[in-house]
Every structure is written in structure tokens, then in C-alpha cells.
Amino acid sequence: MCGIVGYLGDREALEVLVDSLRRLEYRGYDSAGFASIVRSGGANDLEVRKAPGYIDAMASEMERKGARIGIGHTRWATHGVPNQVNAHPHCSCDGTIAVAHNGIIDNHTTLKDELASKGHEFRSQTDSEVIPHLIEEYYDGDLEEAVARAVERLEGSFAFLAIHRDHPDRIVCYREKSPLVLGKGAGEGFIASDVTALLSYTNSFLYMEDGETAVVKADGISVRNRDGDHVDRTWKLVDWRPEDAEKSGFKHFMIKEIHEQPRSMHQTLAGWMSDEDALPPRLVRARTIKIVSCGTSYHAGLLGKYLFERYAGIPTTVEMASEYRYADRTEEDSLVILISQSGETADTIAAAREAKRRGMFTLAVTNVLGSTISREADHTLYLRSGPEIGVAASKTFTSQVMMMYLLSSTIGHRTGHIGRDEFRKVKDGLRSAIRAVEKVLGDTEAVKAQAEWLSSAHHAFFLGRYINFPAALEASLKMKEISYIHSEGYPAGELKHGPLALLQKDTPVIALISDDHTYSKMLGNIGECAARSSPVLVVAPEGDSEVSRYTDRILRYPWIDPMFSPLAISVTMQLLAYYVADLRGCSIDKPRNLAKSVTVE
Ligand code: M6R
Fold it and tell me: Can 3-244 and 249-442 be said to share one CATH topology?
């Protein structure tokens, strides 16, 4: 879950590296570093700069010496605390080789012992440092050969870039279970963990696959597979615009991405129209469905469960990806849906592999073209939300939820579980949900007002029932991850089975209600909380007058068919979490200890 970048060409390498690495900070941001090769006194020098903290802090102090080749790294610590020594790039003993690594080397202890016995001295506590030392051990004038021999010894998940002081014309990169993408321009080559880092420079990309080594030179990029054979894959043109990965005047990426939702939701719907005819028949034949995912994607999956059961009549279970492997059952006719915004979440990828091993048909729902999950699943549906940079998922959540409505109703229609009218109502409902979201975003003053009093809370509960229970879980996750207020999401009916004991006059409860069969029960639950002196904020549709008998703290969302209320409610809750976090002065786009792509299990 670190970010790595490399550049080779005619530009000032450090400028390109700083700029592109800044766009990868969402992958980790506890320390950063750069290595470049510069000419000095008629010889090549390998210069390494690294420091704890954000990239900007160190970038302004780095002298630009006209390097044309370099690598960079932004770190999310796994082995060793975030400090200068543990920051990447790491170097060989003789200081000629530098490596930036993303992933985990599982057998680093054994390798360290072996290399130490041969005289290698390690400076950091990281697993990554074994890579430059191994390359050094095998280096005999040929960097590619040394990398090839080193990777044979490595176990785990790793993508890395290596440069050698005596080879200023090349960057050698390798990928094994961690993402790596190559980009090309005229007389220049780029490497990054993710395309968003490079959108200002190129839109021509090649996604590396496991076991592949690339040698990036100014006059071309060559890729070989595990067997040493040349790989000749088509370069992909990515139509994301550079401004999609900019803040464009917004204070944070998150608020920009929240406001982008009417567009991203439209894109999901429009994309679906072109995909729906090509759905594999296996999807329609599924007797049961298992949805596997993590975090926000898990919440989209939970919502999906209600929708698959309602619109397709297919029994559906939802599992956290990290727990999936511990289940012993094999459901042969089951369709496994893997939801992952990034398509790189290690737990979800491991679950995908396990599902395939058990012989199940796998469907990936992801936002990232060419991501690992899209390459491993039997079929992929793309969200088309555009790049999401803020660590907290927002627009990709609403797209994932839309995908659940679209897929479930299409399967249900094809199997005859729902008729044409109901099928049409789903698409109409989604269009009206987009209009409702537009209205929510058109006037955010009421949300800001509620954020004022909530921002001093230490704990909060989010309650919902039926399809708004997953919305409550997601609202709670948003609140805790960006504002650091401890919060819990609960099915409203479950509160009295324990958590009610925690309610006090300073414990806010946020109740999500819609005008459906859960309405009166939700009112009852709101009453129970108010009776324990908890300040209750009700998120209710416009036109409802009942709730004002229980509380004067009400946030209204535009009235829509209750079946689509989670979309309008979730956007309202994203805004609430955002404004609370902003009032508390939190690092909204890069919350502490988190990273957007969680590529470790
Ligand atoms: O990329 P994925 O959708 O697989 O990511 C899963 C979770 O790591 C992610 O949703 C996480 O919970 C977000 N920080 C939530 O805002």
C-alpha cells in the first residue's frame, strides 16, 4: 500500500517524481523518499533523499540537479516505524543500487540472516531492504540479470523499481501481486503504482502482470515474463483526465468527489447500458450469491444482499473478504461478486483466488481498469466513477450501490422474477436518485449547521433498518475514519440488545429513516433513544411531519421512492462526516494510519 514512481527522459526527474508521487500519497503518507542519478565531476552519483512526513515538506528543500532518471516512494509502514532510516528508497551496501518497493517480503528474516552472514549490513527495520542487498549479491555488471536472480529468492507480494549508478539509462521493475503500471511518452518512460499518478504526462499505459520484468529506457520499454519471453501486450488508452485527479478549487479531494456524484452516478448508469447486453449467462444461472468485499465496498455489498433478494429472488450472503477463506463451505452454483473500488485490496484478491479454487464463477465490480481483480475475475463490471483520490470512499460507494440495483434487477428480469414494469422502475428510480443527490449537494447549509454541534461529540451511533441499515454502517465508517469520532452503525432494532446501555445525554444518535415499511419502527427506536436523553438527529425525507414530534434536529433529503433512499441519505451523511471532520481540523484526504489501497492482508 505504498506508492512507487519512476521516471526516465528529458525532464528534470525530481520534478516529475514529486508531482506524480504527490498523487499517490493516498496510498501511504508516513514518509517519502527519492533516488536519482546525477552527473557530478565527470562521474555518476546516486543521490538519495528521504524523510518522515508528507512529500511536500521534503520536496521544497530538495536541490534539483538536472537528473534525468529517478525513482520515488511514499510509505505506509508495515515493518519498522515511519522514520528517515526506514523510508525508501533503500540502498545496497556500496550505495550503487537503490530500490523503491511496495508490498511485503514474507521471507525477509531468512534472507537478512543469509545476507548478513555474507557481510551485508542492514540499516533499517524494513523487509524491503533485503531487495537491494540481494541484487547487489547477484550483480555482475548486468542489472536485469541481477534483478532476475533476486526475484527468484523473494516470497510475498512485491512491486519494485531498481536503479544502478552505473546504468543511468534504465530502470528495471518487477511485479508480483502488487500493482505496477508503465506509461510512455516521446523519448520518456514512466512507472507508477497507479495511473492517476501519471495522467498529466501520458494516457498510454501497460498494466504489468505477475512475474513480469520491465526495462524502461528512453528509446523504449521492454517487458519479459517469468520464462524470459518477450511480452507483446497492447498498450491501453485511459480516458481519465488529469483534472479528474486535481482538487480543482475544492479544499479537499473528498468534498470534490462528493460533489462529483451526480456525474459519476450518470457515468455508472450510462456504462451499464453498454455492458448489460454482454453479461455472461452464468450470472443469470446463479442459484445463490456470495458478495465478498471490505470496508465501504462491504457496505455496498450488504445493500446488494437486500436488492438481490428483492429483485432477483436469489438468496445472498455477504462476507468480509478477510474472513472468506475461513469458511469451509463450497457453494458450487454460487456466483461470487467481488466488490473493490481499487481492485487491488489484498483481502479481496485473496478471496477471489479462493473462490476460483473452489470452482465458483467470479464477478468483479471495480473502478480501476486493468486492476488485479479485473484480471483475475471471470467477468468484470466497471463503475466508471472516475479516479477517487480521497482515502474515504464517496463517489465510488454510490456507483457500487447503483451497480447492485442494476445487476440485481437485470438478473431478476431475465429470470422472470420481476416483470418489465418493475425492471423499468429501477432505472427510473436511479435517475430520480441522481436528481435527489443533485438537490442534496445544491444546498449544504443545513448539513453544516448539524455538523457544528456534532463536532464536539466523542461517540455517536448511526441507526437504520432494511436497506438503510448498510447506509447507517457506511455513514458511521465515514464519520469515524475522517473525524476520529468513535461511532457505531447498528440496525435500529438491535440497539436495545446491548448498545442502549451506552446512550447518555452527550452521545448523539443519527437515525436514517425513509417512508417505507420500517418507518413506524424507526420512530419507536428514535423515541427509545430520546428517552435516554441522547440528542437525536433524524435524517428524513421532505414532507414528513411525524419526526418533529421526537426531535427538532432534522436533516431533510428530497423525497424519492424509499427503495432508492440510501443513495440520497448516503450523500447527506458523507457531507455530514466531511463538515464535522473539517471543523475538527482533521487530515480529511489522508486520515491517520490509513491508506486507500490496502494491499496487505
Ligand atoms: O478498494 P476497495 O474498495 O477494495 O477498498 C476497501 C476498503 O479498504 C475501503 O472501502 C475503505 O474502507 C475506505 N477507506 C472507506 O472509506
Answer: no
Q: For ligand 1, is residue 391 a contact (CB within 6 Å)? A: yes
Q: Count CB-CB contacts under 10 A for residue 239.
A: 10
- Of 75, 62, 98, nearest to 21 by C-alpha is 75
Q: Mean pLDDT throughout 407-421?
A: 97
348 CB under 6 A from ligand 1?
Answer: yes
Ligand 1 site-directed mutation target among 302, 598, 600, most atoms within 8 Å of CB:
598
Is residue 341 lining ligand 1, measured as CB closer than 6 Å?
A: yes
User: What order of strands is seen across the sheet that includes strand 220-224?
Assistant: 90-91, 97-105, 156-164, 171-176, 212-217, 220-224
pLDDT tens track for 337-347? 999 999 999 99
The domain defined by 3-244 carries CATH number 3.30.1490.190: no
Q: Where are the domains of the chain?
A: 3-244, 249-442, 443-586
392 lines ligand 1 (CB under 6 A): yes
Of 2, 173, 529, 586, catalytic = 2
Q: For residue 450, what pLDDT band results from cuts at 50, 70 and 90?
A: very high
184 is catalytic: no
Distance 568 CA to ligand 1 centre (A): 20
**Which of 184, 395, 590, 596 is flagged as catalytic?**
596
Is 2 an active-site residue? Answer: yes
Ligand 1 in contact with 297 (CB < 6 A)?
yes
Ligand 1 touching residue 399 (CB < 6 A): no
The C-alpha cell of 104 is what?
A: 511485503
Pick the CATH number of 249-442 from 2.40.50.140, 3.40.50.10490, 3.40.30.10, 3.40.190.10: 3.40.50.10490
In 119-272 the beta strands, taken as DSSP E runs, fall at 156-164, 171-176, 181-185, 188-192, 204-207, 212-217, 220-224, 236-237
- Phi and psi at residue 49, to the nearest 5°: -130, 130
Per-residue pLDDT tens over the stretch 502-526: 998 999 999 999 999 999 999 999 9
